[in-house]
Design brief:
Helix content is 57%, strand content 0%. It has 49 residues and is an all-alpha fold.
């Protein structure tokens, strides 16, 4: 089984302000997972939003 190295959960209404909040959560996630390459971060963030 794969070990979880970093995890975030986010719940909010689908309002424009939620986009910034999600980006902030992703910023924290990347701080916990600095080994993730920039291109993978960008790809993931694009898929989430």
């Amino acid at each position: 089984m794969t070990r979880v190295l970093a995890r975030r959960t986010f719940r909010n209404r689908a309002v424009p302000e939620a986009v910034e909040a999600v980006h902030a959560e992703l910023g924290g996630l990347w701080q916990d997972a600095p080994f993730v390459p920039d291109m993978d971060r960008l790809t993931f963030a694009t898929a989430v939003i």
